[in-house]
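Components:
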Amino acid sequence: MIELKQISKSKCYEGDQFVFSHHSEVCNCDMTFGIYIPVHEKNEKLRLIWFLSGLTCTHENAMVKSGIQRWASEEKIAVIFPDTSPRGEALPDDDSFDLGQGAGFYVDSTENPWQKNFQMWSYIVDELPNLVLTKFPLDQEKQSIMGHSMGGLGALNIAIRNPEIYKTVSAFAPISNPTKGIWGQKQFEAYLGKETENWKKYDPSILLNEQGYKGKILIDQGTKDDFLKNLMPEALEKIFNNRNNGDQLRYQKDYDHSYFFVSSFLKDHVLWHKDNVK
Amino acid sequence: MIELKQISKSKCYEGDQFVFSHHSEVCNCDMTFGIYIPVHEKNEKLRLIWFLSGLTCTHENAMVKSGIQRWASEEKIAVIFPDTSPRGEALPDDDSFDLGQGAGFYVDSTENPWQKNFQMWSYIVDELPNLVLTKFPLDQEKQSIMGHSMGGLGALNIAIRNPEIYKTVSAFAPISNPTKGIWGQKQFEAYLGKETENWKKYDPSILLNEQGYKGKILIDQGTKDDFLKNLMPEALEKIFNNRNNGDQLRYQKDYDHSYFFVSSFLKDHVLWHKDNVK
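Structure:
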């Protein structure tokens, strides 16, 4: 039984913003996550939104910058903020900001030196849910997932491959076609090896095209995002148009890649998840 | 004429979140500030709220963590986020977090090595207003000020001594009686010298008691704030009770000193400023 160690607890919009650490068996290191639990009735089971963060982020960025707790409090939804990679001085890392610690890309690595620790897919999809769903008053039938940039990529992949668990998925400026992009090829080669066939299960444009997704998808993308060429929203846009499933990819005029953009549309996303997770 | 150099511009809740730097003549160095300008009509003059931050903060903390832009956008109010001290490798500093860079205490220093740069009172009250009131569409008759912790101290002192300019003042967990406290005595001795008579003009409990304030004051203080002994809210509470001017000091049960606390009550503060600045 994995033990949770409480790092902090701050009252926030009447609920509680916790930070916990715990040993991760899949990542072979200690991991940290934040979870917001709104005020609720005794025995009430709360909806849960997973928020996956982007490159360079820890569990903390979305937790302190997005302002999601206000809407989570009003709508009575729990929100979990996992870290973006395993961490530690003894763990492998890379000098560049977009590989290694802070840049796990939500994949299960098969290559050295990463594979011993960089098992973020299994951590997010299996280990962490097993831990939090038993420890907190959460309704496992009402889970959805969202993310920003690399976290948007993770959220889309995880939802598409696990539609029974994540009933809806939304993303802010997600990496949309990583097998073809600057943010994707470098990391997939490092984490997954040179065989590009093994990359496909982590590319939401390929996954959605091949296997569909029975839930709904909402994406917001700023038109002044400095990373548009790395994100390639047009790949998903094309598939959305063919899918005809009510998916939305909204280009938000003049918004950039920052949390100023995320926070501006986060209330929309929270309400949309609530409306669409029945 | 001081030039503003634009560091960044991010669209946020339809308005613009800017960061600028400029040479400061009073601080003898470059200074950085953030300013949020909501959508407005041509020729419209906007209300302005000054947000002064606490120990260790730069201009950035409140700007990225408080979520104030949402309410500023809805209520059509500009918000300015100054830095908390002069900065630079060539400038004096101290190893402790509560003195020197990041800890200007909003005073005009008279002592070496600080006095050449640490003129935060004059910067906030004179130099920066002269700069921004001419460059942005602001109504100088509708200014108010707020702050957090050390910034709450600064906001209270600045408003009480300049009631014609700042029509209302609010604070989150302000340092309330610095001439008697751990957060105050050390810094006032360093910045202002050993003569305690010179400290009194920077102590809101003394100022309010001696000269009053014709505007309204709102303070929120968390009951689980780890720094209650340094903040000493009871000093102001006593004066509020005697003043009978509609001032409010609200103890918020179980909230701590973090931005999770600030953001939880910030909408209240913004609406309160708007209601009370006629």
